[in-house]
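Quick question about two entries, pasted in order.
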Amino acid sequence: MKRTAVVTGGAGGIGAACAIRLAKDGCDVAILDVDGDQARGIVAHIQGLGARAAYYPCDVADRHALEKAAAATAEDLGPADILVTSAALIPNAESVLDMDMDRHERMWRVNYHGTLHACIAYGRRMRARGGGSIVTLGSINSILPLPLPAYNPGKVAVRRLTELLAVELGRHGVRVNCVAPTYVLTRGLQEKISAGQRDLAKIMASHALDALPDPDDVADAVAFLCSPQASKITGVMLPVDAGWGAAVSYKSYAGGVPWEDV
């Protein structure tokens, strides 16, 4: 049966990979983003795969814009069966006491409130129809503290919101889950590494595997959570972390670790 998927932040990175993967799985796809040029490129790519796709300009920090987009996607592509909330801003490290409060507030409006607004706009419609799947984008920041005083607590909040919604919507046939990527080899991360804003050696040293996920790896996890194979899975956060969650503690053991190159 044909499904309609909505991806916020679908113009690039993880969001674009999710949009393309869901199209390959047979979904029509709505992309909500502020970057029109990139979004239209992804729409054209999806249409080339034989699926319907449309772009809706939308700043997820604006709940009224999301309500309009939800109504428009239902009219153009049909009611949403899947929502992926990928829109987010990613900062550099900073101190809590010295952080830029304007950037802090903007990040909360996009990363947390944008996720919340999307879940409300589309979740209400899924509830009324009696089914659907929502996947939020968390992070390894949802698990442990990192020196990102807006992004880190915001991703913790996204995880908790996911669990709340899973319970509220479960009896209406709507599943709500979260994926939690580690550092993902997006174009943005590559640019930060090149600019000296991220240390690739330190990043690699904190993982169990010798490779980082790319956007397609995260999209595969999202597609699974939206699939019939995950029909009894809700309220979970699935790490796509190359073993970061296991390794970050293991490698900090003060008594030493069993082999030198860990």
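Here is the second entry:
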Amino acid sequence: MVRLTRDAIDLASLTPATPRDGAVALFVGVVRAENGGRDVLHLEYEAYEEMALAQMEALAADAALRWPVTEVRVVHRLGRLEIGEASVAVAVVSPHRNEAFLACRHVIDTLKKTVPIWKKEFYADGAVWLEGPP
């Protein structure tokens, strides 16, 4: 399951495990109130949605080929997000924790570097688009 959404991320829906699974690795990126010494008021995310979804699907499939995992789920928010809200979540279900951790880390790190989703931070004195993938 891979999704882009403008709604709150339902974390419980990301962690399905079968009786054969012994691990669920869940990464949740959360909007923080400070970045680089500046107070953040809120964020906005935009994406080239069709391409982002295709790349997220490819990332999930790649993780499933690299590690023996049962499921890879990725959800990213778009639009305005407030401090403390989840902006991205990656869940990997696997029989063993090491593979779940490795696959989860690979997916979030690669997503941040390559998927066309851009973040704009808003401060009291202005706003800045942060560097993201080309």
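Reply: The mean pLDDT is 95. The chain has one domain: 2-124. Hope that helps.
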